[in-house]
Amino acid sequence: MKHRIVTAAQMKEIERAGNAHGLPYLQMMENAGLAAYTQLRARLPQGGALLIVCGKGNNGGDGLVMARAAAKDGWRVVVLLAEGDPKTPDAMTNYARLADLPVTKCRDAAALAAQPFDAVVDALYGTGFHGSLRPAGLAACTLMNRQRESGAFVLAVDLPSGINTDTGEAAEGAVRADLTVTFDSCKPLHTAPSSAPFCGEIVCADIGIRDEWHPAGLAQL
Ligand SMILES: NC(=O)C1=CN([C@@H]2O[C@H](COP(=O)(O)OP(=O)(O)OC[C@H]3O[C@@H](n4cnc5c(N)ncnc54)[C@H](O)[C@@H]3O)[C@@H](O)[C@H]2O)[C@@H](O)CC1
Ligand SMILES: [K+]
């Protein structure tokens, strides 16, 4: 794990620098989703039933990349669109890329409560989350936490949903993960005492943004 820690706003600057150096946002999302999937496959090489809970932003987009990779690898994939259709351009592109794959799409967390899964991917909220969980988000987080209590392995994409990236404040009902795969740099929540216990093991994955591209002042942190 890299020891550099950056805020949500600094991470956006780093991504902007990556894009300016010729690494498009869509490619960063692809790299993020595949890096997280590689970590999942390393822990559950046998595959199985996989629930991927997606929000409507770019964190959900990372989850949709994972859904594509996992379906091609033979997992039985269910995607829960917990907040409806993806809304950001890159997440919408990755949703369209699922069209010809055997991925089940669902919009109702309650419908999945009794279904057993070997693994759950939390791609509901990432660095964009702040405040408290609203009903749809809370229902999705409750489903993930119940699945974990029933034995499913929970991988959080970037951070467990329901946690504020910069303060580490955990909303009531936030996800508890076995593994958190974050990207490029760690964020304050990964080490804050209030939120670190929600993360489980933390892996910081390379998504192709070279250290020398980082805006001045961030590369040395
Ligand atoms: N920007 C980029 O280039 C990349 C972003 N990546 C991913 O994108 C994530 C950030 O994506 P976004 O900025 O789209 O945001 P998120 O996907 O983290 O959040 C989604 C939406 O949730 C909303 N939201 C905030 N608080 C809420 C609440 N309490 N209840 C309900 N909804 C709430 C936000 O308004 C936002 O629109 C990162 O965590 C990372 O996973 C990665 O794909 C790597 C590249
Ligand atoms: K997440």
From TrEMBL:
Catalytic reactions on record: (6R)-NADHX = (6S)-NADHX; (6R)-NADPHX = (6S)-NADPHX
EC number: 5.1.99.6
Residues binding (6S)-NADPHX, per UniProt: 58-62, 126-132, 158
Pfam families the UniProt entry points to: YjeF_N
InterPro entries assigned: YjeF_N_dom, YjeF_N_dom_sf
HAMAP family noted in UniProt: NADHX_epimerase
UniProt similarity note: Belongs to the NnrE/AIBP family.
Name under which the protein is recorded: NAD(P)H-hydrate epimerase
Taxonomic lineage: Bacteria, Bacillati, Bacillota, Clostridia, Eubacteriales
Gene that encodes the chain: nnrE
